[in-house]
Specification:
This protein has helices spanning 2-30, 39-45, 53-69, 96-112, 117-125, 127-134, 172-184, 226-232, 240-256, 284-299, 303-312, 317-322, 354-366; strands at 75-80, 85-90, 144-149, 152-160, 262-267, 272-277, 332-337, 340-348. It has 375 residues and is α+β, with helices and mostly antiparallel strands. The protein folds into 2 domains: 53-187, Beta-Lactamase (2-Layer Sandwich), CATH 3.30.450.150; 226-369, Haem-degrading domain (Beta-Lactamase), CATH 3.30.450. β1 and β2 (85-90) form a beta hairpin. α9 packs across α13. It is globular, with a radius of gyration of 22 Å.
């Protein structure tokens, strides 16, 4: 009797699952065609309303191109319709606050379903607003916009790192707005910019810059160099171009295996440089990819060694998590080129090929100059 009941419940579950998948696939075909995750990838995540990787990448790349034309650098975060990372890109020379605020702006726009400038304008009129909204983890600054297509929220973008020149038609927000207009079509007009403090009323700001850029023995395409390196006082941070190459190499390798991945590249200080979540990946995979990259960087070794260590010496596992915050799962590898660490990469979601994907990315970007795990 129990077996018959189990069979009935199993058949019912299969029917319901198939119906849900069909519903989501149908919605994917109707909602913002070309801009959202669709097909099998949408069915895998039960979500046909999330911005797809191609669109997120196109918006971020367009903003980076606009910034380069302005002679400035920016950091860009693109989130999906649930507030999860889809695409991250940091141009060379960006410091921690530039990257961190880009994410804060994106998250604020996502949660408000409105430009983050709307909160900034309120805080400009009444400073108490900013204190109150910080308790809700909202950031009262412009540069974050919801990504809306056909009256549906498919994600949010946050741009940071560039001082505004409103009179010249430039700001982080304008970068995001123009990029979205190019990629997904006309956008609602931006909110009014409130008057800023007059230059004559501002307190002088100290200049603190290196006289000459620091030097590296590595090729300039591998690391941040020139004026960007001078701003960072560091010639051994992985460049944005190299991070893109690592991510692309991993993405192409896993696609060749018929799979997908979430990939995070950070620099030698632990700051995000470039990240991509391929369509169909579960949102938490981006978080674990970042944890792997951070563990590999701080541990100066592949996370597969820590996973093996947890098996070989279970007694040491609790302290590695509680005291050190290590994520002891394979898929994180330090980026060591010509024996110099310049960052790390973390990969998740490949169904057992995380480290192999990371290695493929390193070899695609640096060839045999990269140090890779050997067994």
């Amino acid at each position: 009797m129990k077996n018959k009941q189990s069979d009935v419940w199993l058949r019912a579950a299969i029917v319901v699952t198939a119906a849900l998948a069909a519903t989501f696939l149908a919605r994917a075909q109707d909602a913002a065609p070309g801009f959202v995750v669709s097909g099998d990838a949408a069915a895998a995540t039960l979500d046909s309303g999330a911005i797809n990787l191609a669109t997120a990448k196109a918006i971020a790349a367009t903003c980076a191109r606009l910034a380069e034309e302005e002679g400035v650098a920016v950091s860009v975060y693109v989130l999906d319709n649930a507030g999860n990372h889809v695409y991250v890109h940091r141009m060379d020379g960006q410091v921690w606050t530039n990257v961190a605020t880009a994410e804060m702006k994106a998250r604020t726009a996502f949660r408000l379903r409105a430009p983050s400038k709307s909160l900034m304008n309120q805080a400009t009129r009444n400073q108490d607003v900013e204190w109150r909204e910080m308790e809700l983890d909202l950031f009262s600054n412009s540069g974050g916009l919801p990504i809306i297509v056909e009256d549906r929220l498919i994600g949010a973008i946050g741009v940071g790192g560039s001082a505004p020149r409103i009179a010249e038609g430039w700001s982080d927000e304008i970068c995001a707005h123009q990029a979205m207009a190019e990629v997904v079509g006309p956008q609602p007009p931006l909110l009014e910019d409130l008057p800023r403090q007059r230059p004559e009323d501002q307190t002088p700001t100290a200049r603190f810059r290196a006289g000459e850029p620091p030097e590296s023995t590595l090729p300039s395409e591998f690391v941040v160099s020139g004026a960007a390196a001078a701003r960072l006082f560091d010639a051994h941070q992985i460049s944005a171009a190299a991070a893109v190459s690592v991510t692309g190499g991993c993405r192409e390798w896993i696609a060749g295996q018929g799979g997908s991945a979430s990939i995070y590249v950070i620099d030698n200080t632990g700051l995000a440089v470039h990240a991509e979540r391929m369509d169909g990946q579960q949102p938490h995979a981006m978080q674990t990819a970042l944890l792997k990259a951070e563990t590999a960087l701080r541990g100066r070794g592949p996370t597969s060694s820590r996973e093996a260590g947890a098996h070989n010496n279970p007694g040491g596992y609790p302290r590695s998590v509680t005291l050190f915050g290590f994520y002891s799962v394979a898929g994180g590898v330090p980026i060591v080129v010509d024996n110099q660490i310049i960052g790390s990469v973390g990969v998740s979601g490949t169904d057992g090929h995380d480290e192999a994907c990371a290695v493929a990315g390193l070899e695609a970007a640096f060839g045999d100059r990269a140090t890779v795990p050997v067994y």
